[in-house]
Amino acid sequence: MAKTLHKRAHLEIQTHRKNPIGIVRTSFRENGKTRHMELGRITGVGYDKLKLVQAALQGNVVPTSGFKIVSSREYGASKAILDLAKELGLDKMIYSRTSEHWVKCSLAMVIGRLAYPGSSKFALSHCGAYSALWKICGVDEEGLSVEACCHGPMDKLLARQGKIQKALVDKRLGEGCLVLYDIASSCMEGGFEGSDIVKYGYNRDKKRGKKQVAVSLLCGKGGCPAAVDVFPGNTKDEATVVGKIGELHKKYGIEQVVFVGGSGMVTTAQYEKINHEAVKVVSAPAHAKIKELCGKGVVQPGFFDERPIVEVVEGGMRYCLCKNPAIAEKEGRARQALLDKTKEALDKAVNSTRKGKNSKEARAGRVLGKHKMAKFVVFNGSGDNLTWSFDEKKIEAEKALDGCYAIYTDVDEASMSAVEVVESFKGLASVEKAFRRMEMRPCFHRTDPGIECHVFICMLAYYLMWHMGQRLQPLYAQGGVGGKRKYTFGYVIESLKAIRENVASIEGMPVPVITEPNDEQEFIKFLLENPA
Q: How far apart are CA 325 and CA 306, in angstroms?
């Protein structure tokens, strides 16, 4: 549907009634026809004053002491996101009867995650003083409370999660599709006594000492999210794979898929449990598997190159060998730094003349335990008669594999080339990006259902954000790259927020006026309303 942007607000005076009324409207073109949208009405004043307001809106009168802005709040960002949500059918996915109070509140919470990231539900329920979010979503602002507009609707939204995700999967995924799957951790602050999901576990962001939940995300090609699940924080990545594949069959009705999982996620034990007639796998083996293949002579370090991709077959599995020079340099620097620290510490331990209860051998052992470089160190002697050296051959062999990685698959070559296999695995970067953009922290909920629904709301918000990103590509393309980049998603939101819902007082009469968009805001709105 082609739609042009709104023009300046104007006042239409109707005099056919007993008392004249003023209708504040804005106009736009849709499919070649002029349409009007009513913003508000002015009643209870005389014709002369209505003419004065009409002239002021037309710019023909410059009010002095009789004109002032009495209130102003954010309008543009919330309205643009809501319009997109309705165009994508998200409101109907939530529930077919979109007029239900809890549906409107659910939409407001999803939009609020984008317009006001980081805000608690309590803060969002009290944003009416500075945002028209609730009014735009159709929620009565009188007597809003966090229980009525957030916690109550969240219970109903969580109950609908399965059906909403089924609708998203039907829309984004299909038979024989590529499914991107990954899992991340989200730290939780505060007390969670009695929680079944907030647990200590391996933190994928290297944040130790904090309880967490594990969050899995299922995406279609390009990283568009389709389903999210919350697991206990001590859940291992590979433990979720078989169950998630089973969901694709039983819950979502997809029989044939290519399942793309993160590095080391599809272990040998998990792989053997998969029905490979229906499910093909693309993943990356652990570094130890690459060394094993090198030890068997199946793979040589020289096979790895940035281009072209070398493919080998072992045990019916295709391995696509790749090399990333940037990662190779990073790994080399990190290892050399650890070797330098190990050398310094070992020399100090072995050459020390200090007598103590621990032998030089014991002190050297603690050094290796700290820096994890034992595989490169050779000791001679024992106790206090100890010398050491680096095994240069092992170091060189390790260097040869810096930046090297393999992608394996059981998809036949006729269905997916080596390049396509590697590109499908690289698509997981879009899932990692999704986890970052979902901004699940901070989470202010203290119950398991509250946490689960919060994560679901974050996923739905990212679903809208993903579509906004697709439509805003022409804007991003003209804003520079890297450090010179002007346009970001945050910039777009702040720019749209500058479109305000104002109430002007003209000669004592309140007049609702929406800020007229500038050229940049008009372009943003045009892109969001007109998908390429």
A: 7
Bridge-partner residues for 385, per DSSP? 382
Helix (H) or strand (E) holding 363: helix 360-371
Phi, then psi, of 229 in degrees rounded to 5: -140, 150
Distance CA 395, CA 376 (A): 6
Coil, helix or strand at residue 206: coil
Question: Alpha carbon of 274 to those of 174, 182, 238, 279: distances in Å?
Answer: 19, 17, 12, 7
Q: Which residues of the chain have pLDDT under 70?
A: 1-8, 59-66, 296, 300-307, 353-358, 507
Please state, in angstroms and rounded to a whole number, the distance separating the CA atoms of residues 104 and 95. 10
Whether the CA torsion 323, 326, 332, 338 is positive or negative: it is negative
CB atoms within 10 A of CB 442: 15
- Determine contact, residues 109/121, Cβ cutoff 8 Å: yes
Instruction: Name the token pair of 345.
Output: 């510490």
Q: Taking a C-beta distance cutoff of 8 angstroms, is the pair 82, 136 a contact?
A: yes
Which helix (H) or strand (E) segment holds residue 326: the answer is helix 325-351
pLDDT at 516: 87
Query: Can you tell me the distance from the alpha carbon of 471 to that of 459, in angstroms, rounded to the nearest whole number?
Result: 19
392-400 vs 325-351: helix crossing angle, rounded to 10:
160
Structure tokens, 240: 């979720």
Please state the three-class secondary structure of 242-288 as a single string: HHHHHHHHHCCCCCCEEEEECCCCCCHHHHHCCCCCCEEEEECCCHH
Q: In whole angstroms, give the CA distance from residue 314 to residue 316.
A: 5
pLDDT attached to residue 207: 76
User: What does the pLDDT read at residue 509?
Assistant: 74
Q: What is the DSSP letter of 503?
A: E
Residue 64 has a pLDDT of: 57
Q: Which two tokens stand for residue 371?
A: 């820096």
pLDDT given for residue 125 in this prediction: 93
